[in-house]
Design brief:
Length: 366
Amino acid sequence: MPDLPTVPPRPATSIDVDARAGAYRVVVEAGLCRRLSEVSRDAGVAGRQVLVSSPRVWSAVGARFGRARPVLVPDGERAKTLSTVARVYDALIDAAADRGSAIVAVGGGVVGDLVGFAAATYLRGVALVQVPTTVMAQVDSAIGGKVGVNHAQGKNLIGAFHPPALVAVDPDTLATLSRREFRSGLYEVIKYGVVAERGLLEVLDRHLPGVLTQRGPVLTEVIATCCRIKAAVVSQDEREHGLRRILNFGHTVGHALEAATGYGRLRHGEAVALGMRAALALGTARGMTPPAVAEHALALVARLGPLPSVTDLAATDLLAAMRRDKKVVDGRLHFVVADAAGATTVADVTTPELRRALQAIGIRGR
Ligand SMILES: NC(=O)c1ccc[n+]([C@@H]2O[C@H](COP(=O)([O-])OP(=O)(O)OC[C@H]3O[C@@H](n4cnc5c(N)ncnc54)[C@H](O)[C@@H]3O)[C@@H](O)[C@H]2O)c1
Ligand SMILES: [Zn+2]
């Protein structure tokens, strides 16, 4: 039998994030979960690890962690509350977690945010390792140090900055995500392509069918590229004074859509995809977004499949929600517009412009 060519193992991508509280590392590697203890040791995370996950996540990915036994708490946006955080505290106390312990959050953005908040506050803060298992969490929420929970009055109203000691990204965990959840995360990838690295759009163009298998080396590369972008932005602007804002591309309208539909109808990424369509329309109308860039991004969004319809929503409700957005500073809405180089924030968007942008996603009326 002829010798089979040996495929050299892909080296892990290791990215350093500069945070005010100290630097931390983001490691991206297919199969990383199996080596979590070793990677943690290399990253200087000492002490006993207490894993926290959710029943749904753990049944999907638990086998990848060998014999580790986690504490399980519910996930899902409804469970992202202080009472679930209290359950994490109880479990940490039961497990006798001390100042030297590291809490390892294994799950999507909900688990990462709520377990991160528990780590930020338990014993006034213990080390946190993020092991994100959704596209959204791998490319966005696990990096940057924002942790928190929802309040009945609004999303993410209670929170803290608690940069992780390590972010361990294993793209192999994405294989078990539902198709909808996976696609939803890919819209955030398209966002990075528009605002930071247009080459990503080309990679998706060429390899979309492969990426949609939810596994493989191109997916790992795509995830690593997004982690690099998020890490670079956060390193320069941890507290969202300027640069970090461009990552809100598509999010002003996206957040308004999520709020107007009660956070149940749309996945976050789907709302962002619709928001990007509106933002691309606004930017093109202003002459700021090159038509070729808008067409490219819109074509990719379309290739990912149909988005939920939002044509029943009223423009007035969405405009009101946008005015309540965190991005409103001194009464001015800071809207992110794609331009030739990437994206930029504009503070003089008018209501008629916003109405026209909403028409691009089928939202009309007063
Ligand atoms: N901290 C930040 O900077 C930041 C940034 C963006 C978003 N967020 C937050 O992230 C949250 C959304 O995160 P999300 O989109 O990851 O949703 P999620 O955490 O709700 O996960 C989505 C679903 O996928 C399941 N799941 C997770 N990993 C899986 C896997 N590998 N296989 C099978 N199923 C799996 C979960 O159980 C859940 O049902 C929101 O609460 C949002 O506020 C935070
Ligand atoms: Zn987002």
